[in-house]
Amino acid sequence: MDGNRRPKPVIVGSTPIEGTISESSVHSRDRSFDFSNVDPLFWNRSEFACRLLNSLSLMFPVGEKHFIQAVRSWIHMAPSDLLKDIEVFFRQEARHSREHAKFNRLLLMNGVGVSQVEAETIKKLAQFYLQDDQLISTVVLEEITGLGAKLLPYLERWLLSGDEAVAEMWRWHALEEKEHVHVARSLLKYCGISKRRFIKVGFKTVVMFVKQLKYNWNEVKLAEDAQLH
After folding, report:
1. DSSP three-state, residue 2
2. What is the pTM of this model?
3. What does the pLDDT read at residue 27?
4. Which of 15, 120, 130, 174 is a Cys-bridge partner for 152, taking CB atoms 3.0 to 4.6 Å apart?
5. pLDDT at 24
């Protein structure tokens, strides 16, 4: 091969990138879960854990799309040794979105205002319309979910004490979160975003996350109360 010849652009999704793709330490597992026998509002023996995880599930279909878009917007800045991880990250996030959307349809059938929740999530994420802010918010939210994934094994007896199909979905999601939590963080290093900007937007992201979680929590509780009374 001619030593002066440039490598062909690598296609990740629909985005061409100059460089080569190395082997990835991230692995995408195409899992599909059967929720046909699940009572989605009361699948867990812990009322608190059930409502918490349901509230988080409601965030993921919209959130995962935000993460993919944010990373795709900066993918041209990624070094070659990060490209394969990014490619697998996209597949992982798309499959997480698919399975949570499947579970969320059960929540919808049981009275949860899923459309309202997703509209509110989109509205809150819209404040991060700048390309820099999209990536910062993605890094912060990935760190939050990554921390939850790391804690899950220690809290599993409480958080996943119920239907095995739902529990297994959360184990699968947590495993892949731990694998790819570094992707957006690693990409950020190459994007020239200031530390001051990161702190400012990062704080806004945490506030947004807490507010959205509270909103989702209330929507789930309303549906629970309607079924119990």
Report:
1. coil
2. 0.87
3. 85
4. 174
5. 61
Q: Which long-range contacts (CB under 8 A, 24 or more apart) does 202-209 make?
A: 202/136, 202/137, 202/139, 202/140, 204/127, 204/128, 204/137, 205/128, 205/136, 205/137, 205/140, 205/141, 206/140, 206/144, 208/124, 208/125, 208/127, 208/137, 209/140, 209/141, 209/144
Cα(142)–Cα(5) distance, rounded to whole angstroms?
Answer: 37
Q: Show the domain range for 197.
A: 38-228
- Give 210's contacts (C-beta < 8 A, 6+ positions apart): none
Interval 124-134: pLDDT, tens = 999 999 999 99
Q: Is the pLDDT of residue 136 over 50?
A: yes
17 bridge partner residues: 10
Structure-block tokens of residue 132? 């820099």
30 burial type by CB count under 10 A (0-12 exposed, 13-18 middle, 19+ buried):
exposed
Q: What is the CATH number of the domain that holds 196?
A: 1.20.910
| Domain count of the fold of the chain | 1
Residue 51 has pLDDT above 90, yes or no: yes
Name the nearest CA neighbour of 93 among 175, 13, 176: 176
Domain assignment present for residue 192? The answer is yes
Distance CA 136, CA 188 (A): 8
Please report which confidence band the pLDDT of residue 224 belongs to, taking 50, 70 and 90 as the band edges: very high
> What does the pLDDT look like over 61-86, one tens digit per residue?
999 999 999 999 999 999 999 999 99
